[in-house]
Design goal:
heterodimer; A: about 180 residues; mainly alpha; 8 helices; about 0% strand; globular; B: about 270 residues; alpha+beta; Thrombin, subunit H; 2 domains; 6-stranded antiparallel barrel; 12 strands
Chain lengths: ~180, ~270
């Protein structure tokens, strides 16, 4: 059991590193759309919907830390935004159709817009803050739509990885659902 | 009785053969008639044989073709990869040759560094390079690119042991004192709005006096004021000039000479 959890954590950390590396290395999305795409919110949404709170916090902390390390953002700004929003999703995931692709897409859009928005709000308090402009609307739209599309894909990829390498045979269930299923069987 | 007749037939046959051997020159006609009579059969047999052989050849050939095709495809993809690698090497060679010429033609001590990462967020403009304090890189050193001449792209903002962060022009952390070459108006290079979709567009604001109009194409250089950047580093060209807030000063939109997001190597001005 402990080994499995370690594998979960290893896979999560590995995906975090890959996601950040992708974002800091590949420039073609920026050249194509004028916006740097962010995959981290989709990963955090997956954790908020399907993983334990420990793994969610790990993804937010490790992902946010790596992101801010490679950015001019003050350390912790991204982590805070990710934690705040993903915790709300985690808190209410039992009362939403979290397995439905359209729900994941909708939540992906929300989280894709809200995370950079919250980050930007925090940055406005800095001594040297980014200047706001109308082009931000385009940025938020693209980020929202990208995360909306990326979220179900991320759920699929992560579940594949988890089931193949960390939790073979375990379905996509929350604890409560698993209890009900056991009781019924 | 039977034995007698067998001997007789054998003798007749021997005689016939001997007779035929003796009268060879008259037998050619008979042979021709025989060949003509057998021609359709022999032709058919030959055709069938050829057809069989052809089918066999074709079948073998197809197998060979498939194999050959696979081999050629594999070879082609290997060649393409090799070609790409060679093209990449050729580009790198050209870049480094240009860089070497640039280093020899400048009076400064320069350090070449590779870009290893780029800013992941949409609010800042930054690149990370593979040179740090161990290579003599220090805080606020100007960072250049080459385009026939030295082009300023930013300054060192953070220095690590083996890597540094370079803040690029167009970021609020990188303000540069600049002068318009043709009119000698001086001002400050400032960012456009955050996440401007055009990464090579910046503002030249707080332009000093002078009634001369700023025309598109005028060249902008560092002025040397503030002592962070040496004078004469090329920045870009003016695209259009506008009145600043309340008409107190002039502003101009400047097109940077280099899109730093596309750079793979940069120069750090060490001394």
């Amino acid at each position: 059991m402990t080994m499995m959890r370690h594998k979960n954590i290893l896979i999560l950390l590995l995906v975090c590193v890959l996601v950040i590396w992708f974002q800091t290395w590949f420039q073609w999305p920026h050249q194509l759309l004028g916006v740097r795409l962010d995959i981290l919110p989709a990963l955090v949404l997956y954790c908020a919907l399907f993983r334990s709170w420990r793994e969610l916090f790990l993804a937010c902390t490790a992902g946010g830390y790596l992101y801010d390390s490679f950015s001019l953002n003050p350390l912790g700004v991204t982590t805070l935004s990710l934690l705040l929003i993903s915790y709300v999703v985690y808190r209410y995931r039992k009362v939403i159709l979290y397995k439905a692709v359209w729900v994941q897409t909708f939540l992906g859009f929300l989280i894709g817009v809200l995370v950079p928005f919250l980050t930007l709000l925090q940055l406005t308090g800095l001594e040297v803050a980014p200047k706001m402009g109308w082009s931000l609307l385009w940025v938020f739209s693209v980020l929202g739509m990208f995360t909306a599309l990326a979220s179900p894909l991320m759920v699929w990829v992560m579940e594949y990885l988890m089931q193949k390498y960390a939790e073979p045979g375990k379905g996509l269930f929350l604890k409560e659902e698993a209890k009900i299923l056991r009781r019924e069987s | 009785m039977f034995r007698k007749s067998r001997t007789a037939v054998f003798g007749i046959l021997i005689l016939a053969v001997l007779l035929l051997l003796c009268i060879q020159r008259w037998t050619s006609g008979v042979k021709n008639i025989g060949t003509i009579l057998l021609y359709p059969f022999s032709m058919t047999a030959s055709l069938v044989g050829e057809l069989g052989g052809a089918i066999k050849d074709r079948l073998v050939f197809q197998n060979q073709l498939v194999l050959e095709n696979q081999l050629l495809k594999a070879q082609s993809s290997t060649n393409q990869l090799e070609l790409l690698r060679l093209k990449e090497l050729e580009n790198e060679n050209a870049r480094l040759r240009q860089a070497l010429n640039f280093q020899q033609s400048t009076p400064w001590k320069l350090k070449l560094a590779r870009v290893i990462a780029r800013e992941p967020s949409n609010w800042w403009r930054m690149i990370m390079i593979d040179a740090g304090s161990s290579s003599g890189v220090q805080l606020n050193q100007p960072v250049l690119a080459t385009q026939g001449e030295a082009v300023l792209i930013g300054r060192v903002l953070e220095v690590g042991k083996w890597k540094s962060k370079v803040v690029l022009m167009g970021d609020p952390n990188c303000l540069v004192s600049a002068v318009v070459s043709e009119t000698r108006n001086s001002g400050v290079i400032q960012p456009m709005e955050a996440s401007s979709l055009d990464p090579t567009s910046v503002r030249l604001s707080y332009l000093s006096g002078g009634q001369q109009p700023l025309l598109p194409g005028y060249r902008v250089y560092t002025s040397g004021m503030g002592s962070m950047f040496p004078p004469g580093l090329y920045i870009g060209t003016i695209e259009e000039s506008v009145e600043g807030e309340y008409g107190l000063h002039k502003e101009a939109r400047v097109r940077l000479a280099v899109d730093a997001n596309l750079l793979e190597e940069v120069w750090i001005l060490i001394q």
